[in-house]
From TrEMBL:
It comes from Nocardioides oleivorans. It is found in: Cell membrane; Membrane. The chain crosses the membrane at residues 72-92, 98-116, 174-196, 202-225, 232-250, 256-278. This is Probable membrane transporter protein. GO terms for cellular component: plasma membrane.
Amino acid sequence: MQKLVMFALVGVAAQLVDGSLGMAYGVTSTTLLLMIGTNPAMASAMVQLAQLGTTAASGISHHTFGNVDWRVVRTIALPGAIGAFIGATLLVNMPVDLAKVVMSVLLLALGSYLLVRFTVKGFDSSRVGEPLGRTFLVPLGGVAGFVDATAGGGWGPIGTPALLASGRMEPRKVIGSVSTSEFVVTLAASIGFLTALGFSGIQWQIVAGLLIGGVIVAPFAAMLVKVIPARMLGSLVGGLIVLTNSRTLINADLVTVPGGVAIAIYLAIAAVWAYAIAHSWRAHRADTAELDEVRDVVEA
């Protein structure tokens, strides 16, 4: 029961971030499972199974609040599913020690991208409304689906920033569309993992905890998409992922890292993380103040 509650709380936290930012449920949950020694393929499989429920609940909630562009969902979902199935099959057939390192490197890269992307860059709304072509959406879906299965997360960290960077969709539509299409990708990845692994070894208590926590807060996360500053969440989640996966790589058997060096690395990451959070908060306040000034001028 204690384990169920613990992973339900993890599911709550991960879904709050994922539903309001459009990413990081799988990355956050998989990072935790790797930290407690879970087999990489099994960790990704359990997260994907839990996400069958959370992505369905999230998609319904975002649709209810008008946050979904169904043309984008239809275009990226199928290539995403194909990429996810291939990625799941590849991960299952990879040696465990190598898979753990590969997954941690991918997670570290995704976390670093989140940290930099949402700390440094804002959102340019000048091109909102321009249609996105299939030549952009199809490859994006395939790559994001492949990484999602092999890293235990990646659909959101790759899909959301790419769509935001295009400047052609409102942030809430990006987040809602990515979250909704993720159900199809998760289904394909789950089928790939279960085909190769079977049901033995899956800890259903962990899956249930992640699922229950995520489903409970999915509607609230969809509402919060208009409230929580994306820059703040991106910096918070990105730094956490960088720190935890750096620890996994430092503790791996590939290279011996002296204790003092490891502590120095952790402190450096923590310092950069703290600066990123503070910078994101200041940038958010500056952006808000600028918008208020423009609104006052227009109303006057």
